Amino acid sequence: MAQMKFLGGLVFTVCLFVLLISAKSTDVHYFSKKANYAVKVSGLVIDPYPISRGKNTTFQIAAATNEAIYGGKLVIHVLYFGFHIHSEDRDLCAEMSCPVSIGDFVVSHSQELSGIMPMVDEHKKQLMCITFEFSIVS
């Protein structure tokens, strides 16, 4: 019986460890160091990490705003070694619940391969623009 409890605890610990290493918190950098964006990013989690070709990846951006956001879009540009290879726009309110109240929030987006994700409000004013790096495995 004691051996079963030990094995159960070991399996639980290994599963927890696998969950912790399969997602990665990533450093973000603002695209423009001079811009005063309405949205301040506090963190980014990429899950799973490393990213695998052909698999969906979730990018969770933790942020805060000092003004309510009533709508807008998530603009995605994918660069590969500095070369632009893909762009798309997503409705911000389809990615998260609108309006976004003043304070902390999380925007979560799932897809294959993205590298730069600026947000703009309903008047096309840029709310934030960040860059981050990630690895892709086959």
Task: Walk me through the structure.
The chain is of the alpha+beta class and 138 residues long. It has a single domain (23-137), classed as Immunoglobulin-like, CATH 2.60.40.770. The protein is built from 2 helices and 12 strands, in the order αβββββββαβββββ. It has helices spanning 2-22, 92-95; strands at 24-26, 29-30, 39-47, 51-52, 57-65, 72-80, 83-91, 103-111, 119-121, 126-128, 130-131, 136-137. The strands form 4 sheets. The protein has a 4-stranded antiparallel beta sheet with strand order 1-3-5-8. It has a 4-stranded antiparallel beta sheet with strand order 7-6-9-10. Strands 2-11 form a two-stranded antiparallel ribbon. Strand 9 and strand 10 form a beta hairpin. It is globular. It starts with a helix and ends with a strand. Mean pLDDT is 72; it is low at 1-21. Keywords: Lipid transport, Signal, Transport. Monomer. Catalyzes the intermembrane transfer of phosphatidylglycerol and phosphatidylinositol. InterPro entries: Ig_E-set, ML_dom, NPC2-like. GO terms for molecular function: sterol binding.
Short description, anyone?
The chain has about 140 residues and is an alpha+beta fold. The protein has one domain: Immunoglobulin-like.
The quaternary organization reads as single chain
Please identify, by name, the CATH architecture. Answer: Sandwich
Low-pLDDT sequence parts? 1-21
Instruction: Kindly state the number of beta strands.
Output: 12
> Could you describe the largest sheet, including whether it forms a barrel?
4 strands, antiparallel
Radius of gyration: 18 Å
Considering DSSP H and I runs of 4 or more, what fraction of the residues is helical?
A: 10-25%
Helical run tally? 2
Structural class: alpha+beta
Tally of discrete structural domains: 1
User: What is the chain-wise order of helices and strands?
Assistant: HEEEEEEEHEEEEE
Strand order, main sheet: write it out.
1-3-5-8
Kindly state the mean pLDDT as a whole number?
Answer: 72
Percent of residues in β-strands? 35-45%
- The CATH class is identified as Mainly Beta
CA(first)-CA(last) distance: 42 Å
